[in-house]
Amino acid sequence: MSVLGVGRSAGTPTESVSVPSTLAWAAADLTTFGAMDRLLAETQARFGATVSVAVLSAGRGLRGSLLTSDPDTWRELLEINYLSLMGQMRAVAQDMVRNAAEHPVQDLVVIGSTVGRQVSAMNPIYGSTKFAAHSLVESLRQEICSHNIRVSLVEPGFVRSGFQRAASYDPAWFDALESESGPFLRPDDVAATIGFLVAQPPHVHLDDVRIRPTRQKV
Ligand SMILES: NC(=O)c1ccc[n+]([C@@H]2O[C@H](COP(=O)([O-])OP(=O)(O)OC[C@H]3O[C@@H](n4cnc5c(N)ncnc54)[C@H](OP(=O)(O)O)[C@@H]3O)[C@@H](O)[C@H]2O)c1
Description:
The chain is built from six helices and seven strands, in the order E-E-E-H-E-H-E-H-E-H-H-H-E. The strands form two sheets. The protein has a four-stranded parallel β-sheet with strand order 4-5-6-7, with helices on both faces. A three-stranded mixed β-sheet has the order 1-3-2, with no helix packed on it. It is globular, with a radius of gyration of 17 Å. The N and C termini lie far apart (36 Å). It is 39% helix and 16% strand. By secondary structure, the protein is α/β, with parallel strands linked by helices. A hairpin with a 5-residue loop joins strand 2 and strand 3. Bound molecules: NADP nicotinamide-adenine-dinucleotide phosphate (NAP). The site of NADP nicotinamide-adenine-dinucleotide phosphate has 22 residues, from helix 4.
């Protein structure tokens, strides 16, 4: 399997670096209109095949509630977690529908969150973007499942990653939380779940998976 990873880099869309393997990297600001279309075209050009598995994971958190968070940060959160996600889902879905005859099954996996299913008083702004992801995934699933495209939602609980810094979490608070209800998940735990999901036979769709640290209560 060939994999194209995507991250952001100084506002330069689709500026790629070469690596001598089937893992490659492209930089793109996914909030930029058309970024996903360019990445899909770049993937096809680089690997000589259309994309049959896409994992839409780019996102960020936001500390605080409606009352305690900084309203100046809301727009940026909505741009990446919501508007950009819609654009990415649309671009990938259109591409997959176009190429459906080439693959027995295709997978579009969206990373949601436990707070997109269970309301959290601690995290309502971020949570609302993940409720939106939850809704978009199921509606797109219904729209394109007849093309043998599996649109799936993976909803992690606490994962120790770059997320906490990007969301301005207090490291001491997060460490204390992990002591109480961890060990928290690692990105590999989520990746292994996605691997299991996409490895299912074409007629089986595990469409909605919640993965939490064993000791996480809510
Ligand atoms: N960590 C958790 O506890 C947790 C729990 C539930 C759900 N999630 C969700 O899991 C997903 C991945 O989060 P993570 O834990 O892996 O956090 P992370 O380590 O901060 O990774 C977030 C990724 O999103 C990318 N990104 C952000 N804005 C972007 C943009 N405008 N264009 C392109 N890429 C962008 C970042 O790239 P750069 O670093 O290059 O900016 C980074 O690679 C997110 O959707 C998050 O909401 C996380």
